[in-house]
Design a protein that fits this description.
alpha/beta; Rossmann fold; eight-stranded mixed sheet; five-stranded antiparallel sheet; globular; binds S-adenosylmethionine
């Protein structure tokens, strides 16, 4: 464990698990001649079968885990999305929901509860983590047993296109990213090396695909990134998003994540990038702290995601903050009225709405990118559209 952090100490089993993950990383570093790209490091510590943060049995979400997502706060977020989903499926005359990266199954359960009187034809879940697929199964079996026959878990993207709604909440930010630093006008690739029995940053000249992507990024920004500027870029995201969006026949896709436009993310003031690690509700920036026991994420470049979607033939139907999207989908209708007695449930719901909407919480940092194919929503997706900023 590295020093310098006031983070809760893990138990002996967790430490032993993290040591196994570090051994795996060390093996991959050695196989790569002493250098592992940051994207490959992220892939190993998050998704290595049976070892990675998402693949092994760590608690992850909620109070006993490392971070809280909007669906884990309570059911308000899902009830708002349910109104958008219901309106879409009504307009389409029916359809399916495909949720990618369903986490604990909280969003699926609360959505299906909210849509009980008008359920989707099928609710499909696709998740890279076998551990989480099992948790989703347990959550849904407990919460909506009567709707289980409509639910199916996919091992891969469906071959045929689907009409309906595609949902991805906090998934794009969990895809491995490359990290780089500007050196004398060129990008240097940051990666991982073994050092003193642990792991440390290493640097090498950027390979072709990374160098080209950084050159394209600077062209899109209209100015070079300054020397020393250090940040991330999602080289794997376009191909992943393209194949995901390929499954949308007629309907709406909602990608919800923390992130911003290209200009937000590569702003001069953000010269250390957007990489964040989550461990027991503490945020910090050391990705080598307890590998396998903490989550690693980077902000989503929604300008890039919108460009990928447009190139894949989808329309960018909306881009907005989470707060503005939830306001359009009636979040305030969920607030207890002035004449409602404020019992502990009501107070908890008020707190939940506050966290979902407040700029300093999830309201502004989280954005909603709405994409559509052969479908023009006849209902508002946001109270304030920011597409022109993309
Ligand atoms: C940060 S969690 C978010 C979970 C849930 N959507 C929520 O909001 O609580 C990321 C989820 O995406 C899944 N995931 C990550 N990469 C994936 C991929 N390439 N394909 C499918 N699921 C993926 C993880 O296993 C996990 O369930």
């Amino acid at each position: 464990m590295q020093s310098g952090f006031d983070l809760p100490a893990p138990g002996a089993d967790a430490l032993a698990h993290s040591a196994r993950v570090r051994d795996l990383v060390a093996t991959r570093i050695a196989a790569g001649g002493g250098f592992l790209s940051f994207a490959d490091y992220m892939d190993a510590v998050l998704y290595a079968p049976g070892l990675g943060y998402y693949s092994a049995g760590a608690r992850k979400f909620g109070v006993g885990g490392d971070f809280v997502t909007a669906p884990e706060l309570g059911s308000v977020f899902a009830r708002c999305l349910a109104r958008l989903v219901r309106a879409t499926l009504r307009q389409l005359g029916g359809g399916v929901i495909l949720e990618v990266g369903g986490g604990s199954g909280a969003l699926a359960a609360d959505l299906l509860v909210a849509l009980r009187d008008e359920p989707p034809e099928r609710y499909l879940l696709l998740d890279i983590s076998g551990d989480l697929r099992e948790r989703q199964r347990q959550t849904l079996a407990a919460r909506v047993p009567e709707l289980l026959p409509r639910v199916a878990w996919l091992d891969a993207l469906p071959a045929e296109s689907l009409d309906g709604v595609l949902l991805a909440n906090e998934v794009l930010d969990a895809l491995p990213v490359e990290r780089f630093r500007m050196r004398g006008g060129h990008a240097a690739q940051l990666g991982v090396q073994s050092a003193g029995g642990g792991l440390a940053w290493a640097e090498q000249p950027a390979p072709g695909p990374l160098a080209s992507a950084v050159a394209e990024l600077q062209a899109a920004l209209g100015a070079p990134l300054p020397d020393g500027y250090t940040t991330e870029i999602g080289l794997r995201q376009p191909a992943w998003l393209r194949s995901l969006l390929g499954t949308v026949g007629r309907g709406l896709a909602l990608c919800i994540d923390y992130g911003g436009t290209r200009r937000d993310i590569y702003h001069a003031g953000r010269s250390a990038g957007t990489l964040v690690c989550h461990y027991r509700h503490r945020q910090h920036t050391d990705p080598f702290f307890l590998p396998g026991l903490q989550d690693l994420t980077a902000w989503v470049d929604f300008s890039a995601a919108a460009g990928t979607a447009a190139a894949a033939g989808l329309e960018v139907a909306g881009y907005a903050t989470q707060a503005h999207t939830l306001l359009a989908s009636g979040v305030l209708d969920d607030l207890p009225g002035a004449d409602t007695p404020l019992d502990s449930d009501r107070l908890r719901e008020l707190q939940e709405v506050q966290r979902l909407l407040m700029p300093g919480e999830m309201g502004e940092r989280f954005k909603v990118l709405a994409l559509s194919r052969a479908f023009t929503p006849d209902f508002p997706l946001t109270v304030r559209d920011l597409r022109t900023r993309l």
